[in-house]
Amino acid sequence: MTQIMRLNPVKYCHHLLLLIMILLPSAVWGETHPLSVAFYYGKQHPVNELHAFDIVVIDPDSGLTPSDYGRGQSELFAYVSVGEADPARSYTKQMPDRWIIGENQAWKSKIVDVSSEEWRRFFLDHVVEPLWRAGYRGFFLDTLDSYRMAAPAEAFPRMEAGLVAAVHDIRKRHPEARLILNRGFEIFDRVKDLAYAVAAESLYQNFNPATGKYGTVDANDRSWLTSRLRDIRGAGVPVIVIDYVDPANRPLMRETADKIKSLGFTPWVTDKDLAGLGIGSVEVMPRTVLGLYDGGEGAGGDMFFTNLQRYVVMPLNYLGYTVEMHDMREPLPAGILRGRYAGGVIWPYSTSSGEKQGLKQWILNCVEQGLPLVFLERFGISLDSDLTSSLGLAMEQFTQLAPPAKVIAKDDMVGFEQQPLPRIDAYLPVRAKNGRVLLQLSTANGVTSDAVAITPWGGYVSGPYVVTQLMESQAAWVIDPFRFFSEALKLPIMPVPDTTTENGVRLLLAHVDGDGFESRAEWPGGKLASEELLSNILKRYRIPTAVSFITSTLAPDGLYPQKSARYEEVARDILALPWVEGASHSFSHPFRWKPDQEDTGVEAEIWHTVDVPGYKFDLESEISDSINYINNRLMPAGKKARLFLWTGNCLPAGDAVRLTYENGLLNINGGSTIITNSNRTLTAVAPLGISRGKWFQVFAPNQNENVYTNLWSRNFYGYSRIIETFSLTESPRRLKPVNIYYHFYSASKEASLSALRKAYDWAMGQRLFGIFTSEYIEKVLDFNRTVIARNSDEWLVRNGGSLRQMRIPTHAGFPQLEEGTNLAGYSDLGDNRYLHLGPGGEARVRLAVTPPTAVSLEYAAARVTDFTRSGKNMRISFTGHTPFTVNLTGTSGCTINTDDTTLNSVKGDTIVTLTEGNHDLAVTCK
């Protein structure tokens, strides 16, 4: 039985508990979990992945700063060498020779007289203080016992006293500083009250720099070190152990970390250079796939047009992964890649794409490390005997390939949207000696090709069996991309972030491009298209909507100075609506955002660019000045525009995207999600966005009416087909939220306005969660930031708190809804189970084979603003932009209090209907 409640709105104040959860999440649910620490001295920091650890020790000269890293559940500590001076450090040159007592030959560093009071002042002023000003609040103090290599034994007490004084001086100057000591056993008893933790190296596994080999620590040495570390832990100071294992031997790394944990110590098992992503109290499950493409592919060399970006990124996004695109014409990523990346996907443009940068050796290195690789269409280099032998492949010997080629064996993973059509001109006579062949072909004269295979090192799809072109503008998947990438890249079953849903409800957003604001409605008595949109759409459908403006159209010094006052009045009326957020659609609506950009086949759209007399394209005018104009002249008090909607071909260069970030703006538009019943293929579904250098351009979930009306040339009712897109991106997989995206000019024609109403009416009839476009963008950016780490039977999830939805296959199990998990509930859709996270940016997921009996939030089309569990009881608060319902399960026999209403002894599940605004619910169970 389901109990239904209908309630009136009341004013709501955030609880102090919410503030505590946001600022100090570890105080709420992290205190029972062991400390996690990572040491990363490499130059290319996997920043998102490092956020899985409470503390990350880095080299402060490596280029990453605390302000770049951000604060939250994870904090950067600076590596500081106390007893030695590295000649590469800038401050070393300022040190006089009288402070140097020797040299560490192994590291080519100078050993310092730590007993010198003069040196101690220098150390505080020139080493510690600059790091404190840079934002570091924690320090890893290394080389505390180096004096023993250079000073005579009778000087040891004086050296140790100097070290003790240095530690005390740091805390005296900065009482809140947290200090991790590397060993320092000789001084521990005198500084233990100041130590945040003590670290030691090589308890089980080590690296011998003399032999260049990894090895096992001698049992006697291990026993001695274990005894010392237990004494330190017995004094109430946490112990960190750093062990060294060949990064290719991931199983040994896990085994070693588990051994260290079993002793009650915090592990960090890593490579000899501490330059890889090792294993600590948790093991990061890498969510980044490295994508290699040939920059010579595509129109104008823009990465947007490469096959990798157009086809591969979307299914990997759905599987929960980001893709780091890399042009294989540039030097290939070096170092330890396993642990940092989940795998690599290589889609060369030719059979020689990888020759220049040594792709062959790079492949061999990846295979040796155990990083899964997938090759699409071709390998990018010649398949010589060395490579084929290493990959477990064999080339068929033949004198000719006699047509026709035919399929002789096919797995059900092949033929996803289009059946394979064998071609002699794309025939690869290769055999996979190990693994699983998914597509096998044969020529008329018996030459065999294992055209598609999953192998021990990954997999490959040759020739036209990835995607096949049906016609010039349409393509279709031959291989099932979801299954193939999952199996070939050996992707683990784990919770993955989802941007389409929150609290089990599909998201709805609407945004309006500024084109056609000044157009006249084409019917008797018609007003400005902007006025018609305001009265017929924006006031009628009260859902969160972003409305943008081309500022040269409205501004007094723009195109229409005599009409500016009227245009600005209409814009202010639109922006005054509480459910409308403001945005810029640039100053002049550039069609091309890069001066050297080539035509992309849609030259007919050039007429959209506004021709402003005397104006020369300038990024500051288009982005910074346009948003300032909107905020200074159009936005009502208390509201601020912080959105930029790309114009024209939506292919900005990195400098344009960078400028939006520097101005504190969120950006969106671009992509090509145009799947319909007449183009029913997932190749027509775009990914979440594209990286432009270090900046990310977020794509619109769907395309606007311009695409559905042949570039606004005919069939002006065509946008009604967006409903087909909404349906096809919901089933059989929920790939996108619902995005009603259009221009002002849709309100200038009766047919287009009718189509727009139809789209809105369809959305109003669905169970959807209306959010602002800015909120969606923040979820996408949080998707990129989300880190997932494994600790035994538990997954740790961390991000910025904007993305609250995780997803697992239903066969993976049920979430345990307990105190400390920050899971409000779950719901199922098809083969997927959606896990609903509370606020705070951290959750812990443990799965069981049976459903939980605890109270569970099943659905809510509103934001959870506060959430706690205490035993069987639950308190939860919501903010909804529109009226919404809350579905709760497991409430039988419970009492539910919400605002000013109480429901006692509920029978069965509960549905609560609430008005827009803020609401509190408390569920008390016996």
How do the helices and strands line up, and which of them pair or pack?
Layout: E1 2-6, H1 16-23, H2 25-30, E2 37-40, H3 47-50, E3 55-58, H4 66-69, E4 75-81, E5 84-85, E6 100-104, E7 109-112, H5 117-133, E8 138-142, H6 156-173, E9 178-182, H7 188-191, E10 195-201, E11 205-208, E12 213-216, H8 219-234, E13 239-244, H9 250-262, E14 266-270, E15 283-284, E16 288-293, H10 307-318, E17 322-327, E18 343-347, H11 359-369, E19 373-377, H12 385-391, E20 393-395, E21 406-410, E22 430-432, E23 436-442, E24 448-455, E25 458-462, E26 467-471, E27 474-477, H13 481-488, E28 496-497, E29 501-502, E30 505-513, H14 529-538, E31 545-549, H15 551-554, H16 564-575, E32 580-584, H17 619-634, E33 643-645, H18 654-662, E34 666-668, E35 689-692, E36 695-698, H19 705-708, H20 722-728, E37 738-743, H21 750-764, E38 768-770, H22 773-785, E39 787-791, E40 794-798, E41 805-809, E42 814-815, E43 823-829, E44 832-837, E45 842-848, E46 856-860, E47 863-870, E48 873-880, E49 884-889, E50 895-898, E51 901-903, E52 909-914, E53 917-924
Parallel strand pairs: 1-52, 2-3, 3-4, 4-8, 8-9, 9-10, 10-13, 13-14, 16-17, 16-18, 18-19, 19-25, 30-31, 30-37, 30-38, 31-32, 33-34
Antiparallel strand pairs: 5-7, 6-7, 11-12, 15-39, 20-22, 21-23, 23-24, 24-25, 26-27, 28-41, 29-30, 35-36, 39-40, 40-45, 41-44, 42-45, 43-44, 46-49, 47-48, 48-53, 49-52, 50-51, 50-53
Helix pairs in contact: 5-6, 14-16
